[in-house]
Amino acid sequence: EVQLVESGGGLVQPGGSLRLSCVASGYIDDWYSMAWFRQAPGKEREGIAVIANGDGTTRYAASVKGRFTISQDNAGKILYLQMNSLKSGDTAMYYCAADVGGRNTLDAYAYKYWGQGTQVTVSS
Prior knowledge:
Elements: E1 2-7, E2 10-12, E3 18-26, E4 33-39, E5 46-52, E6 58-60, E7 68-72, E8 78-83, E9 92-99, E10 113-114, E11 118-122
Parallel strand pairs: 2-11
Antiparallel strand pairs: 1-3, 3-8, 4-5, 4-9, 5-6, 7-8, 9-10, 9-11
């Protein structure tokens, strides 16, 4: 069993930055993939960044590539999302998730464990 708890969301002006954190407890193996998703009201959940625990390989959605960076601590227990150059379209609930199959995908179907989410609002 894996528990995930996100933090770091809040209100930020367009062009600003935020760093989200996700603390994982329970059994996290080296072949897991960890990812960030987001969901805005009335929209589907979108995978935006994923990292493979084993070798640190990352993938990003086109909507955030070049602006967001996913990383984790050495133990693989804390996942981060550094978000720069934020836009109003980035406003959403942000979730971290763990894929025990290590598929390094941005498809939500692959993820068994989810956090409760942290709200990010980009507004002036």
